[in-house]
Design a protein that fits this description.
There is one protein chain. The chain is of the alpha/beta class. The strands form four sheets. Strands 10-20-11-19-12-18-17-14-13 form a nine-stranded mixed β-sheet, covered by helices on one side. Strands 2-3-1-4-5-6 form a six-stranded mixed β-sheet, sandwiched between helices. It is globular and about 65 Å long. The two termini are about 40 Å apart.
């Protein structure tokens, strides 16, 4: 098909990170976060504070800047991390994409905003199914470019059925917009005639989440090696993506993966993928988590409260991270801080719609018995009751200030700040990880004056709260929860075995 002066590019997406151990995600979860069809995708992507994550706005902005094009919105569905997606909604979304993409033909290219760690209640590789659907409709010669979260669990279909595989490089994810722009550059190249070869290698390593930061550590070094080699091997290599994966999906495609997209040179792609994979395997002893026991965390919080000259501390409840499917409402850390008499502390954000609604009904300064998790049935989300005072109320509408939510329009529903002894707890009605200072600041709380700040987040808070806490001020607490980095606490059924860090005597060879 001859290329038009203004190439017609279809834009679509399906983005969610799914924890097999969490309750199922429904259509309502996508409608509450981002569900768009047709021209609404372009309108939202070009808005100053979109609801969608930044990859698609980055792609659209770069395509706008690079020259004429004719974008065609298909359908875009995004949700906060959750359990497996109800399969009925996924098939409904596929049908919508199929109908709209077929009606849009002919197209010159397709951009897909994916995550890579989705599940449905009946399918372990929904992204692969999505790419099969797209390729069946547009044919083998139309360029398909996709962006992925670096927690993607990568199947053969996810690599073989697209032309450029572009994964995040930062964790916390601060480069999403840049990766969207990179996808646009790849699309322009492919439209000009470049043809690619992709190579994927998977290691028998399922990295715990806390070993996958990209400021330092073995995973950071693998990514850095890939970027250095890509520059050195230019122009042969288009992209290097090192995908750490998402353990809690519990699928056969789990495992640390290296994907290299080359400009026609498969041998170069294979050589580089092998070098990075071998480096990762040589670092395998470093993919084991190290967390702080709860009693030690409590002592640290008490100590900084007693000593105003000591640096304040951030405590990460990594086992109850809504950004990985956690419910964001376990009481272990809050209860321990309250019972120990910790003072000068902020904690958030706790997902508890009934409690937030009750606080709004009572109004400011009301003293009452705050009953947490009165309607929750998920494992680890145990009820707890404490005397509390309503310290602040908010409607939950805000725009992210820093980190992964910077510039993103968010609706958290009715929110309340509750004073429980020396702790002020922020309660929200829409589940979200505490990755942005705005969640405290919108309640009138001063993070800079707090001695301790406890967050329901695994790592993205580092990109939002880094103006308050350096790496040496962060305490990752060992607690029960749906996103615990202590992987031996879960009952795995589909994960490839043996793998590090779960098994002894794991073997791997590139020979």
């Amino acid at each position: 098909m001859p290329l038009s002066a203004a190439p017609r590019i279809a834009i679509l997406g399906f983005s969610i990170e799914c924890n097999k151990f969490a309750p199922a995600a429904t259509k309502a979860h996508f409608l509450a976060r981002t569900y768009l069809e047709g021209d609404d995708i372009l309108t939202e992507a070009r808005s100053p504070a979109p609801t969608m994550l930044p990859e698609t706005p980055g792609f659209v902005a770069a395509m706008d800047a690079d020259g004429k094009w004719d974008p065609i919105g298909i359908a875009l569905a995004m949700s906060e991390p959750n359990g497996p997606v109800e399969h009925g909604f996924f098939t409904e979304l596929l049908a919508t994409i199929s109908r709209r993409l077929t009606a849009a033909l002919p197209v010159d290219g397709v951009y897909v905003c994916a995550h890579g760690a989705a599940l449905t209640t009946a399918e372990d590789d929904p992204e692969g199914v999505l790419f099969e659907t797209v390729r069946r409709i547009v044919g083998p010669d139309v360029p398909v470019v996709a962006t992925f979260d670096l927690h993607a669990n990568v199947s053969d279909r996810m690599v073989d059925l697209i032309d450029a595989f572009i994964g995040y490089r930062t964790n916390p994810h601060l480069d999403m917009r840049e990766r969207g722009a990179e996808a646009a550059a790849a699309m322009r190249e492919l439209l000009a005639g470049t043809r690619t070869e992709r190579v994927r290698l998977r290691l028998p390593i399922v990295p715990p989440t806390v070993t996958m930061l990209t400021a330092a550590g073995p995973y950071a070094e693998m990514i850095r090696l890939g970027q250095e080699r890509q520059q050195q091997m230019a122009p042969a290599i288009m992209n290097v993506s090192v995908m750490g994966g998402f353990a809690y999906a519990d699928t056969a495609k789990n495992g640390l993966s290296v994907i290299v997209t080359a400009r026609g040179d498969r041998a170069a792609a294979d050589k580089l993928a092998r070098e990075i994979a071998q480096y990762g395997w040589d670092q395998r002893a470093r993919f084991y988590p190290k967390l702080t026991p709860l009693d030690e965390a409590v002592e640290k919080a008490l100590a900084v409260a007693r000593d105003p000259s000591a640096p304040a501390l951030a405590f990460a409840d990594v086992a109850d991270n809504p950004g990985g499917g956690g419910r964001g409402n376990t009481m272990y850390l809050l209860r321990a801080f309250a019972e120990a008499g910790v003072k000068g502390a902020l904690m958030g954000v706790i997902y508890d719609p009934p409690l937030a609604t009750e606080a709004h009904r009572h109004g400011l300064h009301y003293n009452f018995a705050a009953r947490f998790n009165r309607a929750e049935t998920t494992n680890f989300s145990e009820p707890w009751t404490s005397p509390a005072r309503v310290a602040a109320l908010h409607d939950g509408n805000c725009v992210g200030r820093r980190g992964i939510y910077a510039g993103t329009r968010l609706a958290l529903g009715p929110c309340a700040a509750l004073a429980i002894g020396g702790i002020t707890v922020v309660v929200v009605s829409h589940r979200v990880q505490c990755a942005d200072p705005i969640f405290f600041e919108m309640m009138g709380l001063d993070i800079g004056r707090a001695r301790s700040v406890a967050v329901k987040s695994r790592g993205h808070f580092r990109g939002g709260f880094d103006e308050f806490f350096g790496p040496e001020q962060i305490v990752e607490v060992d607690l029960p929860g749906l996103t615990s980095p202590m992987l031996h606490r879960f009952d795995w059924t589909r994960l490839p075995r043996p793998v590090i860090p779960l098994d002894d005597g794991v073997q791997f060879s590139l020979a």
